[in-house]
DNA sequence: CTGAAAGCGCTTACAG
DNA sequence: CTGAAAGCGCTTACAG
């Protein structure tokens, strides 16, 4: 950093008070006299002083920042959540640091360093595969951590999540209500908690409805558009086809519809498709996508709020879980069987 | 931050050397003896020490972080760029702080604080409306700043940008090559540099081709899907309609196509449409979108690299501009007139 | 209400 | 190659 920014010393000199008083005037205005406050404010204006956060943080042993670990920053799913987190954090005067967990630099060790290094007062994890509980160091002296969207079944760290299996149930019931009895599912990436939850929701609901969960109607995927297109190819190759498909996210639903379209198969006339997430394009896709909405910026806000409470409360890192409901949005990609 | 993390003192004690030596072993390994290095490394392992960045930064007068100011974090356009920035920064050992410029907290004053407060060694601006040159304080002692994608015509801060007008020219020429002679344009938000550049490219090319730039064929927009749909409504209301439309971004192109589709108008059979950006969904949209590709993670990397060079070089904040070429991707939303 | 003084954890000339 | 010492800019008990 360049030198010569005014320091608290400069302000003290101009105001003719001690640095302690300047500091107090800033942090506890009510503890200095009205007159002093005025003089200090004045000196601050004249010098153009702003507090050096680094020095303050060193002294206070805090960082004024939280870090968010994101599996893929370029993915709109995460950026919407990030947006909610940032809005809440900035309102609370906290900076937000981000790191993409696909970067080789972000090893578990580095996560530990973020915390130890006094870089962050807390951590939000959007990647359920991350295991901060494995970081050496007593958990007692670890800053708060909360999972957002994803979580890890091998620890009981607090998390904020959507009701994934409930959302999947909504999708399947909707298809059933339309008269569909042959229902398929496009899965997310293996080993992902969301994939498991959504699949679970689909299977349970199928079961409850007395419908068959046919192995060849469960298409493998990875949340990408391309995976949806691959599922379309598989659907086309089937002897007996499902008349409706619930995809584990909107991208795959779109890729699926698009793949079918290129083969001359129409959605919803030939197959009904429901997505998951309600991404921006969903209502302008052709056909407009019926999907399970998850309020993504809200979950980000909710996670940030939970984290900040823990930071401020300084309290116990009690395991806790908050679940946000999902909602079905019916549009034009589904119709009666 | 919680207490009791091991400090350099602890390491020194265990290694039976001075803290100065530990510090050197970490920062300038070649300046300590092989034996000492071994002993220090060993002590670090045993204590679980990681450097306290806050203290280091205070001493070194740097922050080890850059801040990226984003107009809308939830917008995939920006998140892709952010991803490129983050990848480069993290590779160089720099943390990245983000702030959404729509947050009221991010006033110009706050931008100044980011810099003064020793919070950041440099700044990347994705929002051309931001004017860091207006921040009080001599520019000489300001950390480096670079615009990315957008820029501001009222200052000559360095920027990395796409060839927007060249890209628009590509789009119009492509339409012309297909035999279209009645060509319209959907504009981005007013007052945006990208809007102006793209419109400029369209107008110049139309002119060069001897085609008319009809006022009622230039539809107002704002880069949103909804704006595209509104343009579709306007197109439908026209007496004389353009047979081809170049949109200033892909979202508007998709919204436009979707709006026409709902009215029974087919793209590309009835109108040809070309987008701008090549967003993820572009090739799975129905029809697959012909568009002008802008390598967004590359521009992010490029901006981060430029910033880091300036930070490391410590050098002059010379005005400089880097322009990345755009490329036309022909798919199915355009056809012969 | 205000100030003197210690100290947060590190780095870096300066000696040796 | 190594150590003693000062200092980065702030905050906060402790006195008064």
Which key terms come to mind for this protein?
homodimer, 337 residues, alpha/beta, Rossmann fold, 3 domains, six-stranded parallel beta sheet, six-stranded mixed beta sheet, 11 helices, 15% strand, DNA-binding
Report on the architecture of this protein.
Two copies of one chain form a homodimer. With 337 residues, chain A is of the alpha/beta class. Chain A has three domains: 1-44, no CATH class; 64-161 and 299-324, Rossmann fold (3-Layer(aba) Sandwich); 164-295, Rossmann fold. Helix content of chain A is 41%, strand content 15%. Chain A has helices spanning 8-15, 19-27, 34-47, 53-60, 76-91, 108-116, 164-177, 193-208, 225-237, 250-262, 296-313, and strands spanning 65-70, 95-100, 122-125, 145-148, 159-162, 183-186, 218-219, 244-247, 272-277, 290-293, 321-324, 327-329. A six-stranded parallel sheet of chain A has the order 2-1-3-4-5-11, with helices on one face. In chain A, strands 7-6-8-9-10-12 form a six-stranded mixed sheet, with helices on both faces. The longest helix of chain A has 18 residues, at 296-313. The radius of gyration of chain A is 26 Å and the shape is elongated. The relative contact order of chain A is 0.12. The model of chain A has no long low-confidence stretch (mean pLDDT 91). Chains A and B meet through helix 4, helix 5, strand 2, helix 6 and helix 9 of A and helix 4, helix 5, strand 2, helix 6 and helix 9 of B. Chain A binds a DNA duplex (16 and 16 nucleotides) through residues 7-9, 17-21, 23-24, 27, 31-33, 36, 51-61, 118.
